[in-house]
Specification:
Radius of gyration of chain A: 16 Å
Helix content of chain A: 40-55%
CATH class of chain A: Alpha Beta
Oligomer: heterodimer
Distance between the termini of chain A: 30 Å
Strand order of the largest sheet of chain A: 2-1-3-4-5
Number of strands of chain A: 5
Structural class of chain B: alpha/beta
Number of helices of chain B: 15
CATH architecture of chain A: 3-Layer(aba) Sandwich
Number of strands of chain B: 24
CATH topology of chain A: Rossmann fold
Distance between the termini of chain B: 26 Å
Helix content of chain B: 25-40%
Largest interface: A-B, 46 and 44 residues
Radius of gyration of chain B: 25 Å
CATH superfamily of chain A: Response regulator
Number of domains of chain A: 1
Largest sheet of chain B: 12 strands, antiparallel
Strand content of chain B: 25-35%
Order of helices and strands of chain A: HEHEHEHEHEHH
Chain lengths: 161, 552
């Protein structure tokens, strides 16, 4: 669970899955049941936007390419409304331009379809981050930021020696 | 209404300022102008950013080495930022020795220098010609022409890095790989008068006010070569590096900050104790610099470059085009990371601030592991914290013999270099020098000449039609940086060589006869007087620059 705050990891939160593939939604729901209090779903970005307007969601897993409204449009509209909920995007291989677009609006992480490696870990961190964002405790001088920077410096130091 | 001319004076000499203002009033009779005086570095920086003066005069007289170095560092930063790089800066010193000790000011943004006690009008003419695109009425001096003699001008550069094998030098000279250059390295006479070989050359990659950064190999003798007193041996360099280790900073401590937040840039510039911290206000233009200087950490203040609300509307069936992406900071970031991945043994830590995306998203998107991303924009407090961590983590990192070390003495160790540029001197007055060169030299490059005394020459857009020569460019430069005695000697020298042409361009050994001292070059002046309504003045009109290169 990395550097999750203990208080936060007690709260499981609400997860929203936005994907036009029903089977994938079902599979992911099964995998993530132990980690979220509620799992909601929507078949496209437009319906996902409605869910986000009406429900208190801590993390979104979102496909990028979807009919009606794709993942990029969805995150853009969500950010315009002032909602900073973390978005985890599924990407199929060979979607680098779409990943770049997602980065502009605030992507939490990316997962490759169909493998979805480390899905559980990423979602747990996403949910924890969603709670932090809601309580506005994102502090640049916080331990997480500093320790992450130190980790990167340490790993580059090891490579040099 | 004509725009007001704005001259900024950073200093406290009321007497100099009064004299300068007299000439400004004389020449700007019909043009509105103002001269503003500031006394602190903070006010200087504030004014430069906010008011964009047409030119700045910086009075270094009576300042300590540390203060001079600090101001030079600020100038260097200003010369690397889009909003301030084209402002011309000029320096003022109390005496010649002070200028010579600090000649490295010319590699930090100073275009020309004045020694107090010299002719203020001439200095005003020089600053006005460079600072304003005006025709001026300039005094006419006696000219020695048709000299046509070879001479090695000394172009002023700066050494930025040193290892046992290599020396990286910033200058305005382009070098092809394998090209030789003889130069003096002022830091130690052991390094001087040697011929170095260029290994690599990068344009727009210098940490100083220079157009090129060149990596030279240090010329050790071959195993079978004869060793003389002048031969540079490797153990000399090793001893020097070891002896000066506290002045040499491993590259691991270098950091680059990229932000377009002017308030932040101002604060960083005025920070005390900034061990090799580079500043830039653009990512794309920083790429050559990053690949040449290889800072260990890059702090990108992303929020100052992104306006998401202005992104093009995305049709659900349409991807963002390559053209749109080409002006996109994210595309620039991708381009940078492509180059970094292609380079050998270089993996800087990229800290991205002011982004709503997280570190893992960036790492996966750009396929680059050393990225840290954070939501808060970059502030001085955050930067201080990150630099502190970087300094602690890299403090005990051992250096390897082939690691390039940066010169970092905050007490004004100026590792300046004087690169020899072979030219053919054509004409000379006490105000200008013209010469031929095969090399492409940018306007406002500064050189040193040591005949008949030490002066400095700043290349300017010529104000006369200069006779051409095949395969050469004919350059004109302002002569400056001499004191009253120097210019008197120069005057005598020119008068002498008008009557008695030289066979070698060097200072005269024999004294002028009384006759020669008293005689004026009447035939020369008569010809000139005929050409001009005003006997001793002529209209200075800029001509096009031959090679199109300019440092402003």
């Amino acid at each position: 669970m990395g550097s999750l705050n203990c208080e936060v990891c007690m709260r499981k939160g609400t997860l929203l899955i936005v994907d036009d593939e029903e089977q994938l939604i079902e599979n992911v729901m099964l995998l993530l049941e132990p980690y979220a209090e509620r799992i909601l779903s929507a078949p496209n970005g437009k319906e996902g936007l409605e869910v986000l307007k009406n429900e208190d969601v801590q993390c979104v897993i979102c496909d990028i390419r979807m009919p009606v409204m794709d993942g990029i449009h969805l995150i853009r509209e969500v950010r315009r409304s002032g909602n900073e909920v973390p978005f985890i995007f599924y990407t199929a291989h060979g979607d680098p331009s779409l990943m770049k677009e997602a980065i502009k609006y605030g992507a939490f992480d990316f997962l490759d379809k169909p493998e979805l490696l480390n899905l559980e870990d990423i979602v747990q961190r996403g949910l924890a981050h969603g709670f932090k964002v809601q309580s506005d405790t994102d502090d640049p001088s916080s331990g997480d930021f500093v320790s992450e920077y130190q980790k990167i410096l340490n790993s580059s130091k090891k490579e040099d020696s | 209404m004509e725009k007001e001319r704005y001259i900024l004076y950073f200093g406290a000499d009321e007497s100099f300022l009064e004299d300068y203002t007299v000439f400004a009033k004389k020449y700007f009779q019909k043009t509105p102008f103002k001269i503003v005086e500031v006394h602190t570095a903070g006010d200087f920086v504030q004014n430069t950013f906010d008011e964009h003066p047409n030119l700045c005069l910086i009075d270094f007289s009576l300042k300590s080495k540390k203060e001079i170095k600090s101001i030079c560092q600020i100038l260097n930063y200003l010369k690397h930022l889009s909003s301030t790089f084209s402002i011309p800066f000029f320096s003022i010193f109390s005496n010649k020795n002070e200028l010579l000790e600090n000649q490295a000011v010319f590699t930090h943004g100073i275009l020309a220098s004045f020694i107090k006690g010299e002719d203020v009008e001439k200095f005003f003419q020089l600053t006005a010609y460079i600072g304003f695109n005006d025709s001026l009425s300039a005094p006419r001096f006696a000219r020695a022409r048709g000299i046509n003699l070879p001479y090695d001008l000394l172009h002023l550069g700066m050494a930025s890095h040193l290892s046992e094998e290599l020396l990286m030098v910033s200058s305005d000279l382009h070098h092809e790989p394998g090209q030789s250059r003889n130069f003096n390295f002022c830091i130690d006479e052991n390094f001087s008068g040697l011929t170095y070989t260029a290994e690599e050359d990068s344009e727009a990659a210098s940490p100083y006010y220079a157009t090129h950064s060149t990596l030279f190999s240090i010329p050790y003798p071959d195993p079978w070569a004869e060793i003389t007193d002048g031969t540079l041996m490797k153990d000399t360099i090793q001893t020097w590096i070891s002896f000066h280790s506290e002045l040499l900073l491993p590259k691991k401590k270098n950091a680059l900050v990229i932000s377009s937040n002017q308030d932040l840039l101002k604060k960083v510039m005025l920070k005390e104790d900034k061990p090799f911290l580079f500043l830039s206000d653009g990512l794309k233009k920083s790429i050559p610099f990053i690949m040449s200087q290889k800072p260990n950490s890059i702090y990108l203040d992303l929020s100052t470059f992104v306006e998401p609300e202005k992104q093009p509307d995305l049709d659900s069936s349409k991807l963002t085009t390559e053209e749109e992406l080409s002006h996109d900071i994210f595309q620039e970031l991708e381009n940078l990371l492509k180059e970094i991945k292609f380079a050998d043994h270089y993996e800087p830590i990229l800290v991205i601030l002011g982004t709503p995306s997280k570190s893992d998203a960036f790492k996966k998107n750009y396929q680059y592991p050393s990225i840290l991303a954070f939501h808060e924009p970059l502030s001085l407090e955050v930067l201080d914290k990150l630099l502190e961590i970087q300094a602690q983590k890299t403090a005990s990192t051992p250096t390897t013999p082939d690691e390039l070390l940066s010169f970092s003495d905050p007490e004004a160790l100026f590792p300046c270099t004087e690169l020899k540029v072979p030219v053919k001197i054509f004409s000379m007055t006490e105000n200008e020098l013209t010469f031929y060169s095969k090399e492409a030299l940018p306007m406002y490059s500064v050189f040193k000449i040591e005949v008949p005394e030490t002066f400095f020459v700043t290349l300017i857009p010529p104000y006369a039609d200069l006779p051409p020569m095949l395969d050469h460019t004919h350059y004109m430069g302002f002569v400056h940086g001499g004191d009253f005695k120097d210019f008197m000697l120069l005057r005598n020298f020119i008068n002498r060589i008008i009557f008695k042409p030289l066979t070698e361009f060097k200072a005269l050994e024999e004294e002028l006869t009384e006759q020669e001292n008293n005689a004026s070059p009447s035939s020369e002046m008569t010809q000139i007087q005929k050409e001009s309504k005003n006997k001793n003045r002529y209209e200075v009109i800029r001509k096009p620059v031959y090679n199109g290169k300019s440092k402003l």
